[in-house]
Amino acid sequence: MRKPRDYDAELKALEEKARELKNRKVQQLGELVIATGADALTADELAGALVALAETTDAGKREVWAKRGAAFFQGRSRRSAPASDHDTGGAQAQPGGAQPASGTTGAA
User: Fold this and answer.
1) Structural domain tally of the chain?
2) pTM for the predicted model, two decimal places
3) Domain range for 14
4) pLDDT tens digit string along 6-34?
5) Is residue 96 within 8 Å of residue 24, measured between CB atoms?
6) If you count DSSP H runs as helices and E runs as strands, how many of each does the chain have, helices first?
7) Out of 53, 75, 83, 105, which residue is the most buried by the measure of CB atoms under 10 Å away?
8) CA–CA distance, 19 with 32 (Å, rounded to integer)
9) Measured between alpha carbons, how far is 106 from 29 in angstroms, rounded to an integer?
């Protein structure tokens, strides 16, 4: 006979995992703000800039921002990586795997 599933325990575990993922995302976004130097802006300035970025639907602008963001991360890896690792042949991933939910990589 099968053991009954403990749906409450499974749901609690999933909720904990979701909380951990949300906390990690918040931390990574904070690290991104600091890494780009955007922490020098006031909260109002940063919020206004992010709102403008999130509302932008112009694919050309978004592509330029994405390229600039990729170049930013590639430049950071060059400063911290050994000489043999400089040319990776592609865009660098964001530290810790952070991917903003809105898809606006390189927003700063």
Assistant:
1) 1
2) 0.60
3) 7-97
4) 999 999 999 999 999 999 999 999 999 99
5) yes
6) 3, 0
7) 105
8) 20
9) 12
